[in-house]
Predict the structure of Baeyer-Villiger monooxygenase.
Amino acid sequence: MAEHEHVRVAVVGSGFGGLGAAVRLRREGVTDFVVLERADSVGGTWRDNSYPGCACDVPSHLYSFSFAPHPDWPRTFSGQEHIRAYLEHVTDVFRLRPHLRFNCEVKKMTWDPQGLRWDIETSSGRLTADLVVSATGPLSDPKVPDIPGLDTFPGKVFHSARWDHDYDLRGKRVAMVGTGASAIQIVPAIQPEVERLTVLQRTPPWVMPRIDRAITGPERWLHRRLPFTAQARRGLLWGIRELQVQAFTKHPDQLGVVEQLARRNMARAVKDPDLRARLTPDYRIGCKRILLSSEYYPALTRPNVDVVAGGLAEVRDSTVVAADGTRAEVDAIIFGTGFHVTDMPIADRVVGADGRTLAEVWKDGMEALRGASAAGFPNWMTIIGPNTGLGNSSMILMIESQLNYLADFVRQLDVLGGRVALDARPSSVHTWNRRVQDRMKRTVWNTGGCTSWYLDAAGRNTTIWPGTTSEFRRATRRVDLSEYTVLRAPARATAGEQDTVEAAI
């Protein structure tokens, strides 16, 4: 990185959000930007999560950019390797590699109120930017619980998102901690290889069959030759999920039918009534993410698998001890315990106009105007920000909506002209957040009777969008300047004399 490098836009992260932002900037005619990536390749969570069985639970044709359709998806639900290859393909097709800065971890971003720019410290040097797009994503930093005695465990320990491919699990006694989206894919993938598998389950998930199949050659040929057929397929997948939203957001009682289907799915695979009782959730389906797997329940019935209805409480030498007192001698502990979602580490590294970090501003809960702009952090936008997550559809739809907002944000800066910045008004942020939280009150995520990673430490849902993707797209189509304060530097001021002028529009 060149010393004192200045760019118009700095994008942080090269997953779907970061690469999507880069593509959109180029399409808007902005080429003076960099993508800062702490790893040595693109891919984000689809690079980091390479555990056995890793795959997406959203259909392939919906889990891709609308501006970069892929007619050759090999399966209806893509594996990790296929999605990562797709992101590499997007990088090449849209000529993004000259903008990438690998092994370049952002250490600190500080707003300069005099220069109206961001000072960015990275592991590869310093640079400044007029606008920062934070696309680090909520599933980027693994969370490992503080377990007494874990530091004395003599065996192997790793998180599902940091899989140790050099460690051979064959013939080992393994503890799988957690039963979330990653764990239900890992368990059936490693069960045939290990000597003994102890699944430490704090809360059982609702699991539905995953109707996965290979996409046939004729189907792929048709999608290549007649692109509108792939568009129709994507549209059908999207429409079905849009119709489902009201059951999650307005009428959770309607999910009782789905719950009965899930119970029947379990009963078909699990004949042991005692095991079935341990695997049956006590909360409304949908409160936690509904998981998809046709292999998870059968794997749990195998002779070398034990399901312990209690989370990991402590480790004593080579023994894992569950909350109910159950003990098991193990050689390896694998954590499938999720990520820092409501306490994203990047927030500690962003210092706003008043000298406070984003983490300090968000200590009572994350909130951002239209999921993108935080008050006191001018010309800083986040992709997949507060209350932009989904419980039943593709996050790519939400990302593309935020890219529309980013594009108009850049246009507004161009129209205003000169050295200018937009800072979300606190009143606008609070009004937006209050409306979101009011709608959240009757959703299944808040009323379903579970504790999930959707909720922050105070029990507030700061992650999920309580509506359809269509509603969110309408809400983020344009930047409303009345929701922002315009910060402008005097046109003739020198670098040492600039006094920031606030103009409310």
